[in-house]
Write a structure and sequence with these properties.
Number of domains: 1
Radius of gyration: 18 Å
Low-confidence stretches: 285-290
Distance between the termini: 23 Å
Largest sheet: 7 strands, mixed
Strand content: 25-35%
Order of helices and strands: EEEHHEEEHHEHEEEHHEEEEEHEEE
CATH class: Alpha Beta
Number of strands: 18
Helix content: 10-25%
Length: 290
């Protein structure tokens, strides 16, 4: 599949694995009879999802947005999430002729394990090391604060081994709110899904791709009111989704998806109907039940 090109920025979607989650959790208070018309579930109410980190390149920059689960999961965890294969972002980088050392930047939309786990790697000697040893790792200060001061709801949502080796290696780039990572590449704090959730805006040549992370995990979540039960601050999710989706629709931006099994990126009209889409390529592996 050829990369998406906007100006001098090229965008590819890495494929980490397929997996499955409960549809009710993914669509929160929206009834199944409603959301299943947009995103079908299996008999056990699981919906098919994917892990698709973004690979963003422009002159002098090789940036990865989120990193999948990584190779530290146990067999029990892989079965729990119905992963179609062992996760390792290094494997798919090779498909694009890249080594982990070539990555200059890594952006976390947030630090949940399905987005941050692949940033560190379990080595043969049992140590946990940065997957991309030369990459500056961009994260919001509020997300680190949430990880450092967990409460009953979030204490199992963060894993120190996904962050500590990066900080110890001096790779952390901690930002507050809006920040320019490189020319045409900006992050914005939204909160909502997590305290420090951020989105990534890619702009060049008069075009923009907005990656909204888990505020917009699939195309079926285009309705601002359709937020996940996983969101720590659902009203903030709704507010931020409405704001950014309105801007994207007004200005004709593309919207990218990290978890959608079927679509990589799309543009929508004011009613939330797709105007243009780029379908996700098929892979041999499929998540069980998907």
């Amino acid at each position: 599949m050829r990369p998406m090109q906007i100006g001098d920025i090229s965008i590819d979607w890495l494929y980490d694995a397929d997996f499955g989650l409960d549809g009710g959790a993914m669509f929160g208070v929206v009834p199944r009879v409603v959301w299943s018309k947009r995103y079908p579930a299996d008999a056990e109410n699981f919906i098919p999802l994917s892990l698709r980190p973004l690979l963003v390149r422009r002159p002098g920059v090789v940036l990865v947005i989120d990193a999948g689960y990584g190779n530290k999961l146990t067999e029990k965890q892989r079965a729990q999430f119905r992963l179609s294969r062992a996760c390792d972002p290094r494997r798919d980088l090779a498909r694009f002729g890249l080594e982990p050392e070539d990555v200059t930047h890594l952006v976390f939309t947030h630090l949940h394990p399905d987005h941050a786990g692949g940033a560190t790697t379990l080595a043969a000697d049992g140590s946990v090391r940065p997957t991309f040893p030369r990459a500056r790792v961009v994260v919001q200060h509020l997300e680190l604060e949430a990880m450092a001061t967990p409460h009953l709801r979030t204490k199992h949502a963060y894993q120190e081994e996904n962050w500590r080796p990066l900080a110890e290696a001096g790779l952390a780039w901690v930002v507050d709110g809006q920040a320019e990572i490189a020319e045409g590449i900006e992050v914005y704090h939204t909160g909502g899904h997590t305290q420090g959730h951020q989105i990534v805006k890619l702009s060049s040549g008069g075009e923009t791709v907005l990656h909204m992370g888990d505020l917009l995990p699939t195309h079926a979540h285009i309705n601002p009111l359709w937020v996940m039960a996983y969101d720590d601050f659902p009203m903030q999710s709704i507010e931020q989704k409405a704001r950014w989706l309105q801007r994207a629709q007004d200005e004709g931006w593309w919207l990218s998806f990290y978890h959608d099994r079927n679509l990589l990126v799309a543009r929508f009209d004011a009613a939330g109907k797709p105007l243009e889409t780029v379908a996700a390529p098929a892979f041999a592996e499929s998540a069980a039940g998907g």
